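Continuing from yesterday's entry. The apo prediction looked reasonable, so today I'm repeating it with adenosine-5'-triphosphate included to see how the binding region is handled. Same sequence as before; SMILES copied from the compound registry.
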Amino acid sequence: MRFLEDLDPEQREAVTYGEGPLLVVAGAGSGKTRVLTYRIAWLLASGRAQPHNVLAVTFTNKAAREMAERVEKLLHGPLRGGFVGTFHRFALTLLRQYPEKVGLPPRFAIADEDEQRRLVEQVLKELGIPSTQLSPRAARAAISRWKNGSSSAVSASELVSAVVERYQERLQAAGAVDFDDMLVLAVKLLAEDAGLRQILRQRFTYLLVDEFQDTNPVQMELLWHLAGPRPNLTAVGDEDQSIYRFRGAELEHILRFEHTYPGAKVLTLGNNYRSAEPILKAAAAVIAHNTRRRPKLLRSCSGDGEPVRVLAAADESDEAGLVVADIRRERAAGRTSIAVLFRINALSRPLEAELVRWGVPYRVVGGVRFWDRAEVRDALAYLRLLANPDDELAFLRVVNVPARGLGAVTLERLRQAAQIWGCSLCEASRRLPETLTPRAREALARFWELLDSLRQQAGGSLRELVAALLEQSGLAAQYDTREEEDRARLANLDQLVNAAAEAEQRGLTLPSFLDEVALLSEADAETAPQSVLLSTLHAAKGLEFDVVYLVGLEEGLLPLMRGEEPELADEEEERRLLYVGMTRARKKLVLTWARSRRLHGETRTTRPSRFLAELPPEVRREGLTSPSPLPHWEPKPLVRPRQEAPAPEARNGFRPGMKVEHPTFGRGVVLQVQASGAQTRVVVFFDRAGKKTLLPSVAPLKVLSAPRG
Ligand SMILES: Nc1ncnc2c1ncn2[C@@H]1O[C@H](COP(=O)(O)OP(=O)(O)OP(=O)(O)O)[C@@H](O)[C@H]1O
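Holo prediction written out below.
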C-alpha cells in the first residue's frame, strides 16, 4: 500500500486504526478529509472491507463526490457497491426501498422549496394566523427546527405545533415529503424495524463521517441505529469549525463523542499543511478565546509567509477600493487563487462594483449575485413598474408580492378582460374588471394606489424613493423575523437603498439607474477558473486559496447582531466563522474593516470587531487608531424586530437610558431591558470597558439616575 507514504505518522495511525469507534479531531488544514479518504482506501486495500461494507457520509454533494473520486484514484479503480454520499441521499435511498414501512406511497414526491413555501402559506391561511403573528418564512424555519430535533424547538409554542401538525397533514395528503422528512422518516424506519436494522448493520460494517461537528440530533440518531452495539464508526471533525447551529448542528456531539460511544479512541493531528505560520498563529490566537472546545496545537508545514494584516478603511467603497487594488497587484504578480469572504451576502455589492470597474473577473458562491437575489429582483420589479406602469413581467412578478390574495384565478380573469378590451394586462388590472371578486378588486386598487403615491416621489430623491418603496409595499416587513436567512435578505434590501443613494450622487434618475442595473446583470456572467471568488464565510468551508481577504470586520457584522449583545454561544459561533475564514488562506491573509459603513440606507460610524483585539501583536495593523474614539455604533434595523412587551413589574423599574453602576464593570448606561417571567436582563454600555454587556441579572446594579418620562 504505497499510498500510506503520502501520510505523516499521526495521519497514518488514524488511517490504519483497527476496530471500534474512532474520533479524529483536529484543526483546520490538518488533513482530516485526507485521513477519511485514505482510511476508506486502506480498509478496502487491506481486505478488511468490501466496497459494499462501506458507508461514508458527509454534508454536501460536492464533498461526497470529491471523496469518492479520491478513493477511486488511490485504488486505481471504481468504488462499486459502497455508499459515499450525503446524509439526505442515504436516507432517500432507504425510503425509496421501503416507502410502505413509513406510510409513504410507492412513488412519493419531494416538495421543493417553492412548494413548501406555498404549503406553509396555505396552512397559515387555513388556521387564520396572520403574518404579523407568524410569517410564512418564520413558520417554515420553525417547522424545520422542530423536525431536526433542535433543542431550541423543544419549547415550540402551541401556535407552531398546530402549524407543524397541519403542514404535515397537507404534505402527507399530497403524497410528499420535504427535505427534513427524509432524515426523520429514515430514523423512524430504522427505529421501528429491527430486522432492517440488522440487515443494514451486517452490510455496512464500517461507517465514516466527515465534518462530524455539523451533525444535528436526527443525523446522530440515524448513525446510532446504523452503528449498533459494536460500531466501527470513524468520525472526523473540528469543533472550532462548527458553524451550522442555526440549522440544528450541536457542538455536544463532537465534544461528547467518547460518552456516546464508550471506549472510543480519540486521535488528533498536529500538522497543518495549508496555511503559513503567521496565518495559523493568528487564527489560533482568536479561536483560543472560545470556551467550548478541546485545546489543539497546530504546526505549520508551509513555512513563514507574509505577516497577517489588518486594514482600516474610511468606508465601504474605500474598503472595496483597497481590497481590489491589492487583488490587482496579486494577479499582476501571478497569484490567481484569491477569495474575498464576508459574513453576509449584502457586503458583496461594493466589491462587485469595484471588480466590474477594473474588469477583474469574479464569481459569487454561497448565494446568487446581489442583483439576482429574489428580494432585490422583487424590489427592482416595483421600480420598473414605477418607471413603466405597463411592464407586464414586472407586474406579474410582484402583483402578489407580498401576498395580497391575487392568485392564478385573478390573473386568468385579468387576461380575459385584457383580451375583450384589447388592452395590456396592466391596463386591464387598473380598470378593475367586474369579473373579479370584490376582494381582488380592492387588493388591486390598493396596489395601484401605492404605486401612484410612490410615483409622485419619483422625480425627487432616488434613495428616499427606494426606502419608501421597501417600507410601504411591505417588501421589507416580509423578512421581519429572527431567522438568519431573513436577516440577510433585509440586509440586501438595505444595500439596494445604498446603491440608489450612490446612483443619485452620480446624477442618475430612476430610468437610467434601472438601465444601468440591467446592463450590470448581463455584462458579467464571467466564470473563468482564475476569477476571484466572492463568498460568505459559511460557503467557504472546506475550500482553500493562496490569498484571502476577510472584509467587514466590524461590531454588528462579525459578530453579526441585530440590536442586541449576542449570547455567549452566538459569540463563540461567530468566532468560529472567523476562524473558518482565516484558515482558508494558504499564503496571505488580509482582514479589513471600515470606519463608517452605509447600513439601512444611512451612513454610520462603526467600531472594529471585538475579534480584532484578539489577534496577536505581530499582526500588522494599518490605518488604525485604537481603541476607536468614535461614538458607539448602535445598529438600527430597517424593520425593528418584534419584541414582546414585558409586564411592567418584570422590568424591576429598569429603563433604557438609566445610568447605573456595577461593582466590577463600573459606570454605564442601560441600552435595553429584556424581561421574561420574573427575570430581568439588561444590556448595559460600560464606559470603562467601552463595550456592551448583557447582564444575566440586575441584582448587582445600583441606579445612579434615570431619564425623564
Ligand atoms: N500529509 C500531507 N502531505 C501533504 N499535504 C497534505 C497532507 N495532508 C493534507 N495535506 C494537504 O493539506 C490541505 C488540507 O487537507 P484537508 O482538506 O484534508 O484538511 P482538513 O483538515 O479536512 O481541512 P479543513 O478542516 O480546514 O477543511 C490539502 O491541500 C491537502 O492536500
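Comparison notes:
- The CA atoms of residues 539 and 639 lie 27 Å apart.
- The mean pLDDT is 85.
Will overlay with the apo model tomorrow.
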